[in-house]
Structure formats: structure tokens, C-alpha cells
Design brief:
By secondary structure, the protein is α/β, with parallel strands linked by helices. The chain is built from seven helices and seven strands. The chain has a single domain, classed as Rossmann fold, CATH 3.40.50.
Length: 189
């Protein structure tokens, strides 16, 4: 990660510290995701829930280095605008496609194959988001669902359903707000 990206991350952290609507993953989770995307060699990624662009700042450069890019979706125009400025500050304009809209509507236009997906949006639609991306996944793609520790009741039925799928291997990762890491194995798990 270069100094330009680090500077943008620090600026985003400072901006979010004074806001109660900054729904970003904590730094330790961002570091985990950065390492995971690096290790996986992921090139094409998707985030459902941009917020102010914090997690995207941690992954877009890696995806670009692997020959790809990140698509990130948020429905709030103000957040979309702020996130776009941080991507520009980080020198990631060529590595991020920031889409403003309702995720379930936008997902139909996202092309695969996807190597990495972060679901960090409204919890009641997690299953619908997940089902929308499955046909677009590459072999061994990683899908992370955030907030398993902070929203256990809202995610309980979704996680039971997800852990019962034979085409994924899933494990809880107690980092940040808690994440469910699901690896696509196409029924070979």
C-alpha cells in the first residue's frame, strides 16, 4: 500500500470519527480484509454498502494490482459523493466503480466473475444479496458478511441458511464487528 492510499485512509478515519452515520468496518477488520484479498489474489471485487468508502480504500489497490477493480454500491447520494472524493485522493479512480443506487437493482448489472464480495448493508436483505452474487462467483471466491457479532439476532436465520449450503464452506471470523467468511466450492465442500 502506497503513501497516497495510507493518507486517504487516515483522512477517511478522521472524517468518520466525528459522524454517527459512518457504518464502516473497524480498522482491524479492514486490515484482515486487505490481507485476505491479497492472499486470495483477488482481481474482481464487489462491496454492497460503501458508506464513506473506508473498506474500499483497503481493497481497491490490491484488486488493481491483480489486474482488476472493485464495484462498490451504496444507496445514499451524500455517502457516494464523499467516498468518490476519497477514492480520488487515494489515486484509485481507475480501480473503483462507485455506484449509487439500490443494491438489489444494481446487482443485475454487475458482471462476474467475482473473486471477493463484502456484504455490509441492511441485514434483512443479506440472503437476497448473497443469492444475487452466487452465479457471478469465481471458483474459491470469498464472500464476507459483516456484523455477525453486532447483529446476531438479525443475521441468525441467514447464517443458518448459509452454513447449510453444500456449495460453500463458511466460518465465523471474530474480527471487528464479526464476519462470516464463506468460500465458494461449487458443491465440492
Amino acid at each position: 500500500m502506497n503513501e497516497q492510499m495510507r493518507s486517504a485512509i487516515e483522512a477517511c478515519e478522521a472524517f468518520m470519527a466525528g459522524r454517527d452515520d459512518a457504518l464502516a468496518i473497524p480498522r482491524e477488520a479492514a486490515e484482515f480484509v486487505h490481507a485476505l484479498v491479497t492472499m486470495r489474489g483477488a482481481a474482481r471485487g464487489l462491496e454492497i454498502g460503501t458508506s464513506y468508502g473506508y473498506s474500499a480504500l483497503w481493497t481497491a489497490g490490491v484488486l488493481r494490482d491483480h489486474g482488476g477493480c472493485l464495484v462498490t454500491i451504496d444507496m445514499e447520494p451524500a455517502k457516494h459523493e464523499v467516498a468518490s472524493r476519497y477514492f480520488e485522493q487515494a489515486g484509485l479512480v481507475d480501480a473503483v466503480r462507485c455506484v449509487q443506487g439500490v443494491a438489489l437493482d444494481v446487482l443485475a448489472d454487475v458482471d462476474g466473475p467475482l473473486d471477493y464480495v463484502l456484504i455490509d448493508a441492511d441485514k434483512e436483505n443479506c440472503r437476497a444479496y448473497f443469492e444475487s452474487v452466487v452465479p457471478k462467483l469465481s471458483d474459491r471466491a470469498v464472500v464476507l458478511t459483516d456484523n455477525t457479532l453486532t447483529h446476531p439476532d438479525e443475521l441468525a436465520a441467514y447464517l443458518d441458511w448459509l452454513r447449510g449450503r453444500s456449495d460453500f464452506v463458511s466460518a465465523h471470523v471474530p474480527v471487528g464487528n464479526g464476519m462470516e467468511m464463506s468460500v465458494y466450492v461449487g458443491g465440492q465442500g
